[in-house]
């Protein structure tokens, strides 16, 4: 992907998001059991109702944990949960779309299982096989980076000399953070003139 950082919109919805049923309806998140899902979620013998629990209870084709631990969840609660998750996802999809037309949506990560197979505003919802390990793959292939943001005087040195020096410092900073020396390269340089400065750097 030819960009330093993708356009990201975060919402409090994932596989470990806590689900609560109230007289006024069902709430999902934004708090979550997070990495403790395998000990705290109902299907894993815990005592916290999560989106994964409600998804397992509402879909007989999903085999996660012990289904018997969520048999007590009410049909009305499960229905309300599904509607809530669908609405949350459709809202964020609409926010992120750059075209009014329906677009395909690719869902990956452990939380993809909680999403419905159809969403308004999408042409199709894609959940690739083994997509649950996407987070681990992303962490494994992530590149080490370094950024230096500084102010320098050009009174005694040229912009080119300063850029070369700062680039070298940025590369060394990346190496110190774990990057391989022979793989480090500069991907972006931006210089902005300051019309007035009372200090020299």
From TrEMBL:
GO terms for molecular function: hydrolase activity. This is Hydantoinase A/oxoprolinase domain-containing protein. InterPro entries: ATPase_NBD, Oxoprolinase-like. The lineage of its organism: Eukaryota, Fungi, Dikarya, Ascomycota, Pezizomycotina.
């Amino acid at each position: 992907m030819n960009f330093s950082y993708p356009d990201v919109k975060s919402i409090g919805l994932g596989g470990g998001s806590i689900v609560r049923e109230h007289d006024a309806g069902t709430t999902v998140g934004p708090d979550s059991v997070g990495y403790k899902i395998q000990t705290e979620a109902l299907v894993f013998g815990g005592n916290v109702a999560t989106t994964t629990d409600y998804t397992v209870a509402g879909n007989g084709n999903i085999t996660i944990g012990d289904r018997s631990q969520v048999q007590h969840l009410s049909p009305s609660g499960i229905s309300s949960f599904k509607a809530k998750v669908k609405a949350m996802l459709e809202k964020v999809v609409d926010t992120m779309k750059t075209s009014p037309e329906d677009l395909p949506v690719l869902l990956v990560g452990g939380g993809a299982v909680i999403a419905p197979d159809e969403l308004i505003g999408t042409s199709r919802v894609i959940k690739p096989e083994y997509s649950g390990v996407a987070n681990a793959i992303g962490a494994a292939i992530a590149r080490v980076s370094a950024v230096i943001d500084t102010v320098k005087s050009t009174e005694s040195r040229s912009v080119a000399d300063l850029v070369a020096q700062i680039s070298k410092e940025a590369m060394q900073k990346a190496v110190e953070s774990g990057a391989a020396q022979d793989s480090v390269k500069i991907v972006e340089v931006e210089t902005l003139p300051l019309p007035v400065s009372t200090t020299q750097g």
